[in-house]
Structure formats: structure tokens, C-alpha cells
Design goal:
This protein is an alpha/beta fold. It has 2 domains: 172 residues, Rossmann fold, CATH 3.40.50.1980; 143 residues, Rossmann fold (3-Layer(aba) Sandwich), CATH 3.40.50. The protein is built from 14 helices and 13 strands. The strands form 3 sheets. Strands 1, 8, 9, 10, 11, 12 and 13 form a 7-stranded mixed sheet that branches. The protein has a 4-stranded parallel sheet with strand order 5-4-6-7, with helices on both faces. Strands 2-3 form a two-stranded antiparallel ribbon. A hairpin with a 5-residue loop joins strand 8 and strand 9. The chain is globular, with a radius of gyration of 20 Å. 51% of the residues are buried.
Length: 337
Amino acid sequence: MGALLVALILTLVLGGCTTAPIEQADRSVPASAHLRNGPSTAELPRTDVVPVADNPTPQLPVTVDSVGHPPVTVTDTSRIIAVDRNGTLGNIVFALGLGPRVVGRDTSTAFPSALNKPLVTNTGHTLNAEKVLALRPTVLLVDENTIPPQAVDQIRAAKIPVVAFSATRTLDTTPTLIRSVAAALGVHDAGEALVKRTDDEIAEAQKSVPNPSGNPTIAFVYIRGPRLVLLAGPGSGADDLIKELGGTDAADNADLTGAYTAVTAEAMVKANPDVILVMTQGAESVGGIDGVIGLPGIADTNAGRARRIVEMDQTEILAFGPDIGQVLGSLAQAIYV
């Protein structure tokens, strides 16, 4: 997630999947009734991307929208590069069955079948135009926030088709993003199959959430060392996860309205989460679970007292790609007994 995500979050601080969220009809169950005590690690049941099709044949040419730019015509998908800070675009391309056509990847596209592809991003997820051009791609997929924009422009100037997608990552935007990537690569049928599989996995994940869940208060805490601790709130994407997991966003208790807000000890105590979600790499940046609990205010929350810290890899937890059903199921199993 690195410097780009930090920059985006600090900007906020300073400045469909068709499955409906789980309905909790009975609010009388205590919040802690089904919760595990102690730290947990949420891991996906499968470590690699499983394609829905075996190298499908693209139907080309196609002309598609590109966020912030005129429509783009794609005539050749034999050499694909997909880049965004979460690795979501790369995940989608591989899940569509087009992994054999990928010639470069970003830092977050780190599942086993992609690791043999050369990196085209530098530290902080910045795109390296020279590395991209050296790989002679026939199409480049980026999101609207890919940096630096000059690198993207340099690649466009080299007459390589560049398709830009929305950078918004939520449950509601996942099917649209899958369909948009599939359309840009000329594999409509594979896109529809992938949307269906994703919806089916979300429905399966819901079975891991007790109903009623007890409506526990859940916080997503973004950590990059002890001096950068942010509480996720509305519009962060974490609020979608929490709702789908049968919980209440702790940011609501603290009356926070920003997607990410620098959190004081007092605000954390007021939020008083029953469970705290963190990125594994964020926890590592403060020395692990004990370091998380030692952050201001956390030890004085229900989550801190019960050591209910659930960690998950940063390339998975907020990617909102084809694996979102697995993410939800893994988190649910880590949160609930």
C-alpha cells in the first residue's frame, strides 16, 4: 500500500456485487456473544488466483471509456500490463483467464502465478514508464490515481492504448470494475462468469456471520508506524466490510465523518471497538499485536482488553476484487466463533 496510499489518506485527513448486506433482525444478542478473544490472522482459503476461463479468445477491437480521457480503442491484448495500488486490476486480469498474456505487474500483484512477471512500479507504487515501454505492452490498464501522471502520459504518447478505471474500491463497485476490465480486454463472457462467481462467494461468506451477530462495533485502523494511526470511516471501503460482517463501524461511535481520520486516545476510547481490523504490514510496523494494543487508547477499548485484533494482508483486505467473497469469509471466521 506504501507511499501512495499514505498520500491519499493524508489528503482525506487534511482536506453491483448484488448481494445485500446481512440483515440483523435481533439486536438483543450481546455484542461479544459470538466473538473470539485474542488475536487472529485472516487468510484466504486459496493462495493463488483461479481463472474462470482458460485463456479466452478476446473479441477485438473494442472501444471503451477511460476515466478522465477520451474513449480508447483496444485492438491487441497479447501483451497486457495492469497497475493499481491494491493489485485489483492485475487480480481481475488473471481471474478472467488472461494471465498468460500479462507481461508486467505492480508491487501489490503478488499472488504466486504473477510473481514471475517483471515489476513496472517503484517504491510507493509509482509507475516507471521506461520499464513499461521496455516490455512493449499492447495495452496498459491503470486507475485514475496512478502516479506519476507524467509517466502515464509518456506511455500514451508512445501510442500504447491506456485504459483508466475508477480508483473507488467498494463492494458496490466490484462488479462494475470486473465488467469494465473484461470489456476493455474483449472477454465479456468471462467477465460475466467472474461476476457470478464473486457474488456466489459473497453469499457463501455470509454463512460465516452469526445471525443475529450481536452487532459488534468494529474498527479498521490504518497503521504505518506509531506516528501514523488513522481510523477508517465513511467512504473508506472498510465501512462496507464492517457492515457486511454484521457489525457497526466504530467511526460512527466517535462521530467521525472522514474516510480516514488521525485518531487520538480519547477518540479511540469513545469509538470503543469490540474488534479491531488491521493490515498485517501495519501491525508489523509497530512491532506486532502487542504494539497495536500499545497504541494510544487501544488498550482501554473492549477490543484491546480482549486482544481482539484481526490482521490481514494489505494486498487483500481492501482490494475489493474477485476475491472479496473469500476476504469476507476469512474475516468472519477470524472474528466469530
